[in-house]
Design a protein that fits this description.
about 425 residues; alpha/beta; five-stranded parallel sheet; binds flavin-adenine dinucleotide
């Protein structure tokens, strides 16, 4: 434990970030009390399978849960299931729980994550309009999916597309509505977007790009169709709204901490109050892989590595957060893996076989390699992570040269 750090560690939010922090504290030898407070009515579970194999019914909850109940007991992690922190009293150094209790903290970690963004659309309250973030929402969606025929997905990001892949594989009619001109436009390069859109079309899904849903219309309280700004009406007995998330920063803001697209933290993931950290989807941090600019990332890697970084600090090994961001998405038989942050790239180079669906896109800005997207090329992704984490560069010419040894470049010793 770092000098001056007294009392229990209280963690608010028991998902990827919160759970990992509790586990890492014990792994790193922290011996004091650890409270993990989570407002969902379940043991901490992994979210990625919710839009993939768990939604599809291919795996059970035992494959989704992070650890069985015994883990918490054995590691003396006090897990408060179904409990919500409603306020932070920084002067008194305690948090208030909705169940009436107060918890004193020596250090407070906010791992409150994010929640579904609900668009201001008439009809969002209709029966049959769904979201996909929590276990409860997944169960509801799975039941409804079995009975649905015509599905409209609003938003062609990762979650909307992953859901569409599962729904299409079950033979459902799927129409995806997207405001921008391509799928995954926030996170993927143009070739990757085009490749995925073509794959969905080939699988029988339909798209409306540059299209705005303006109303969800119902009959007898149930969804009936989605109306677009163009006037087009898309029949629907199930609508998935997947238009991004809102970081849960209200608790921090009410306690006087800065919140700007996430809870603002420094390079060590501490807020302006050194006794309070923020990690995972809820945290906006200066990202060394984004030219030091504030970033708020939504990935398992980010949540888990943030947690490890704070655990290190709390056991007296402070360091700046510098882990390389990486991400994956599984859409049917297609696996997309991204190393680095490619946002803002001005040039790309293709490597591999685009037509055959096994390729990587090297993304550059002003000639500097920012990141690499790989589609069904896991070896490229593994090399990309090593390469970028070590701060090495591969020129556009090298990237496009099939005979260039990416593995050797990733493994090369510096200097
Ligand atoms: C369907 C789906 C699929 C995904 N697939 C992938 C993928 O393939 N790869 C990938 O890298 N990432 C994926 N992600 C993203 C990844 O799951 C998130 O980045 C990750 O869950 C972030 O973890 P977190 O702990 O920061 O926040 P969250 O997972 O949002 O968890 C925060 C938790 O805190 C709780 N909470 C909030 N406020 C309070 C409070 N006041 N008191 C108590 N509890 C509170 C919330 O209810 C929630 O349980 C996916 C996400 C979803 C939803």
């Amino acid at each position: 434990m770092s000098d001056g750090m007294k009392g229990p560690v209280v963690i608010v939010g028991a998902s990827h970030a919160g759970f990992q922090l509790a586990a890492s504290l014990r792994q790193h030898g922290y011996d004091g009390p650890v409270f993990l407070v989570g407002d969902e009515p379940a043991l901490p579970y992994q979210r990625p399978p919710l839009s993939k194999d768990y939604l599809d019914g291919k795996i059970g909850f035992d494959m989704v849960v992070m650890r069985p109940e015994a883990f918490f007991r054995d590691h003396r992690i006090e897990f408060l299931q179904g409990a919500r922190v409603t306020a932070i009293d920084r002067a008194a150094r305690h948090v208030q729980l909705d169940v009436g209790e107060r918890l004193a903290y020596g250090h407070l970690a906010l791992a409150t994550g994010a929640r579904n963004r609900v668009p201001p659309l008439p009809g969002v309250e209709l029966d049959g309009v769904c979201y996909l973030r929590t276990l409860a929402e997944t169960h509801d969606l799975r039941d409804r999916l079995a009975a649905a025929d015509h599905i409209v997905v609003i938003g062609a990001g990762f979650i909307g597309l992953e859901f569409a892949a599962v729904a299409r594989a079950k033979g459902k009619q799927v129409h995806i509505v997207e405001l921008t001109d391509r799928v995954m436009s926030r996170v993927a390069s143009v070739p990757t977007s085009h490749f995925f859109a073509a794959a969905y079309r080939a699988a029988g899904a339909a798209f409306s790009f540059g299209a705005q849903a303006v109303r969800i219309a119902g009959q007898g309280g149930r969804v009936d169709h989605v109306e677009l700004a163009s006037g087009e009406r898309l029949p629907a007995d199930l609508v998935l709204v997947s238009v991004g998330v809102v970081p849960n920063g209200e608790l921090a803001a009410a306690a006087g901490l800065a919140v700007a697209n996430g809870i603002v933290v420094d390079a060590q993931l501490a807020t302006a109050d050194p006794l309070i950290s923020a990690i995972g989807d809820c945290a906006s941090f200066p990202c060394v892989h984004f030219e030091g600019q504030p970033a708020r990332l939504e990935s398992v890697q980010n949540a888990a590595d943030h947690a490890r970084c704070v655990a290190d600090r709390l056991v007296g090994k402070p360091q700046s957060y510098s882990a390389l961001p990486w991400f994956w998405s599984e859409q049917g038989k297609l696996r997309l893996q991204i190393a680095g942050l490619t946002t803002g790239h001005d040039h790309h180079v293709l490597r591999g076989d685009f037509e055959a669906g096994s390729f990587s896109v090297f993304c550059y800005k002003h000639g500097r390699l920012l990141g690499i997207e790989s589609v069904n090329r896991p070896a490229d992704h593994a090399h990309a992570r090593r390469l970028l984490a070590a701060g090495r560069q591969v020129s556009p010419q090298q990237a496009g040269d099939a005979s260039f040894d990416l593995r050797a470049a990733a493994a090369a010793r510096p200097g």
